[in-house]
């Protein structure tokens, strides 16, 4: 939209009179359903890098505990990324049971208290960055924020135990956001219906980190170093997105290879995991250890189920596997097909998946590995973060332009749809004035 068309004389305008005079080092308040110290995923990759130029307050979703205590919060500075402060909130089961209105209001009160006390002045005029639509009722348009970003990394409404109100809250967030980022192409196509300023940015990769798997100096972890025969490995969260029938079939199809699963469990009953002598559920490992584990993998697996939870996923591990120069075998998840078909083997049936895994364990497709390495080098986290910052700055400048034209501060979320409405009103006003 052209906000300079037929614009009135704003020569006397002073940005300090309005709400949005922003610094290029604007602080960011992140609302995330994931723990900062959980599996190192998209939110941690982005905000650890953004913290080099922007103070980051990473607000985790509430933790519900037994006991008799009032709602509380704690703050902790990340020792490795000093620009990141993690805020953890805790509710007793008794208070959590009071319901949504109480919880939403209390979450806002807790963050306001932290901003007015321990964090006073550190996160004024912040950009609020949402991963968790459930945080909208507490924080959208609050805390003196200057813009709203929604980074949609998963279709959370299709995950197990998703709250029923998540869909309506996400719709509210989509309409309000100044810019929306989508982690997959299919997801972008879904969200752009509600916010025209929606952009696809898939996962990136730390090539130098995962490239350690190629180094002779990287030691193989002791718990898999002694395994004899081919190793077919997976790292990531062990949850409803995996095809457990396929994993069991892989293990039982060949007693001479090993299937190694590295990752914490979530939302599943560990006692129900398939078992076999050559199937190893190792549990969670630190992000720093993943290249060492992958070094022992002869084949890297993406054995995803084809269900609602995987309909929109764009797995971070795809590029990470490729950066280790390990052949990748995957089920046909839509975004894997659209993004990585040239650099990994994608199979429709369990039988074909197992057959291809065996082929790659015996003789890796070198052309596929070269393509994967090229894709990894072209999609670093740093490159993606720089492009995201450009979109945010453009949104901030657009908002400032609207405020200048209206000659009043805009203190409510002014998302993609609202910006179009504001522009229409301004054009009508300008035309009338002419």
Q: In short, what is this structure?
A:
With 434 residues, this protein is an alpha/beta fold. It has helices at residues 42-50, 93-96, 100-116, 136-139, 166-176, 185-191, 207-210, 222-225, 244-253, 290-295, 317-323, 334-340, 350-362, 366-378, 381-406, 416-433, and strands at 28-32, 56-60, 63-65, 72-77, 84-92, 127-130, 147-152, 179-182, 198-200, 231-235, 258-262, 279-283, 299-302, 328-330, 345-346.
Give me the count of strands: 15
- Characterize the main sheet: 9 strands, mixed
DSSP summary: helix tally: 16
Helix/strand/pairing category: alpha/beta
> Which geometry do the CA atoms define?
globular
Any idea how many domains? Answer: 2
Kindly provide the radius of gyration, computed on alpha-carbon positions and rounded to a whole number of angstroms: 24 Å
Mean of pLDDT: 88
- In terms of DSSP E residues, the strand content is 15-25%
**First-residue to last-residue Cα separation:** 19 Å
CATH-level-4 superfamily name of the largest domain = Glycogen Phosphorylase B
Helix-strand layout with pairing:
Blueprint: E1 28-32, H1 42-50, E2 56-60, E3 63-65, E4 72-77, E5 84-92, H2 93-96, H3 100-116, E6 127-130, H4 136-139, E7 147-152, H5 166-176, E8 179-182, H6 185-191, E9 198-200, H7 207-210, H8 222-225, E10 231-235, H9 244-253, E11 258-262, E12 279-283, H10 290-295, E13 299-302, H11 317-323, E14 328-330, H12 334-340, E15 345-346, H13 350-362, H14 366-378, H15 381-406, H16 416-433
Parallel strand pairs: 1-2, 1-6, 2-5, 3-5, 6-7, 7-8, 8-9, 10-11, 10-13, 11-12, 13-14, 14-15
Antiparallel strand pairs: 4-5
Helix pairs in contact: 1-15, 11-14, 15-16
